[in-house]
Amino acid sequence: MFSRAKSTVSKPSNRDGLTPWLFAAPGLGLLAMFLVAPFLLAAWLSFTDQRLITSDALPTAFVGARNYTRLFADASFWAALRNNLLFVAVVTPLQSALALGLALLVDKQFAGARIFRTIYFLPVATTMAVVAVIWSLLYSPDAGVVNRLVGLLSLGTVGPQDWLRDPVLVMPAVMLMSIWQGVGFQMLVFLAGLQAIPGDLYEAATLDGAKPFNQFRFITLPLLKNTTVFVLVTTTIYAFQLFTQVQIIANSGASAPVDSFRTLVMLMVHEGFRSGKVGYACAVSVVFFLIVLAISTLQRVWLRAEESAA
């Protein structure tokens, strides 16, 4: 008779279950200190009339939902939200599509591919403040390169435009500058995704007679879905954080009416540090956080649903 062998698999001890949390504790502590705690403090201050400079004569008082009531009746808030949504709706798909196109180009094996990758990534390594100043000069109505290029392409039928004073053109000008500066980062992400796709799939498709477009449609795009989700979500979040470009344009002295390019982050900074209304600025920040969270969550859910249905 054969005796039944005893199982030698041991159950994980409590110490083994605690080990991952010990390794994650420093990171979680930093997140709680620099993200969770400031947000909770801002949420509390949004229900007060906290000022930037306080005194015993004007102590901080609890005002309930007054800041939120004022916020939703503020025309500047709705103008800033409209500008943010327009910026996100235009920049996110265009920048992501352009990044994918550049990644496809530099993924090919040819002489100088690394040089082109470096050139496309250089704007990302340049600070946005420097980029905004340079592009402000490029948009100059007198001797700006952009106006000369437009005149050249239109064969002189389109005259010089005052990009930063015209309320219709200022947001497209900011969008073009932002796409140029940030597309290199998304290109590298897509490039990493492309290089993770096995080359055997393309060889098999070529042997089966598949055209390059069909290979892109049925191999590249499906296998880049996770990368695309990451790029779209991060680009959306970065687009909502639009501030440096428009702030430099506003301080340049050659800007359009401020409501034509004001953003929510710009409104927060103005109300909190220039007007000294910290409580109201915190209300703007809380609403801003909830909007970004809702849009990012819906975006991820929609993309995951598309992936499951495919």
Total DSSP E strands: 0
Low-confidence stretches: none
CATH hierarchy class name of the domain at 86-262? Mainly Alpha
What fraction of the residues are assigned to beta strands by DSSP? under 5%
Estimated structural class: mainly alpha
Order of helices and strands: HHHHHHHHHHHHH
Secondary structure: helix percent:
over 70%
Remind me, CATH topology of the domain at 86-262? MetI-like fold
- The end-to-end distance, rounded to whole angstroms, is 55 Å
Give the biggest beta sheet: none
- Helical segment tally? 13
Kindly report the name of the CATH homologous superfamily of the domain at 86-262. Answer: MetI-like
Average pLDDT taken over every residue: 86
CATH architecture of the domain at 86-262: Orthogonal Bundle
Tell me, briefly, the overall form.
globular
Radius of gyration: 26 Å
Structural summary, described in words:
There is one protein chain. The model has no long low-confidence stretch (mean pLDDT 86). This protein has a domain at 86-262: MetI-like fold (Orthogonal Bundle), CATH 1.10.3720.10. The radius of gyration is 26 Å and the shape is globular. It is mainly α and 310 residues long. α3 packs antiparallel against α10 (225-240), α5 (128-138) crosses α11 (244-251) and α7 (170-195) runs antiparallel to α10. The protein is built from 13 helices and no strands.
